[in-house]
Amino acid sequence: MPKPKSRQSLRSLCLFALLGAMVFVAKMAMASLPNIEPVSLAVILLAQVFGWPALAAVYVYIACEWLVWGIGIWSFPYAYVWLVLFALTMAFRFMHSALFWAFIGAGYGFCFGALCALWLLGLEGWNAAFVWWQNGVLFDLLHGAGNFVIILLLYKPLYTLLTHLKDTYHIQ
Q: Both ends of the chain: CA-CA distance in Å?
């Protein structure tokens, strides 16, 4: 017997809230590593497995970041940079190669600082945006390399796990 639509929606909402919080906890667990984190992998997997509704989990993660670290000049870009990766993943959702996603994650990590600096263009101009990006280039290199390794190693097992979770609990 099919479940009522509202029950499925509630199940999805709870799952995405938990997954968003788990992404934050996983990132905090890896905080001792310089700019190496599982967030990019999680965003890719959420978009691939659950589609657009999983964007809620990404914004739960962002809300956790803001609640713990506060809202400051560094936090505004989070409102759009993860959306960029999510949308990119949705465009290539049909791809299931760990190597492909490792390269996407690496490229995204290398470009992360530039993406974060974009909002400064309208606010402060090119000089401020360039300085913001320039100050974080080393961290972007670490971010990209870390993304490559993490995605290459964990993409397949986590994709299988999330797909099983989706099927088991009939998440739409």
A: 16
